[in-house]
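User: Hey, my collaborator sent me this sequence without any context and asked if I could get a structure. I don't really work with proteins. Can you help?
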Amino acid sequence: MSALLAFLDLRIEEARRIRLAMDHWAARRALFVAYRRDLMPVVNDFKRVRSWLTDIRQLAGPAPRLLDQLDRRLATATRLLSTIDPPAELEAVQSSVSAAFHMARRASAIRRHAVSSRDMTLAWDASSAAAGALMLVDHALAELDRLTTPPPNR
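Assistant: No problem. I've predicted the 3D structure and written it out in structure-token form, which is a compact way to encode the shape of the chain:
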């Protein structure tokens, strides 16, 4: 009988922890929704230049005339990102997105220099920076989804 009571106590405690986690998430939900709403235009800006970053990663471009446009778009998105204040739970997401934009701008600048100097080592450096930027933004979006999904209701 005491084993059964101990088991029930454990189950009750687990249910209380789950309920507390669900209540916490519900209380923070509005902040998460607002942050996602504010962040999505910045993420969409990144998605619009993703193909150019993929070209840099693959050592295939983009055309030199597009590098200035790429840098301007990334600079504008970076400024917008700096105005967004994330909830404490999502600061790592914000940091990852910011780092992705920084790496993307670096990839663009290095690619520009590689093209003007015909330096293949610089082209590879730009490729690495572009790959890092693409990876970071994908990781940040996966984390955003994970952290803003309500806890399971076992």
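In plain terms: The chain has a mean pLDDT of 93. You can pass these tokens on to your collaborator as they are.
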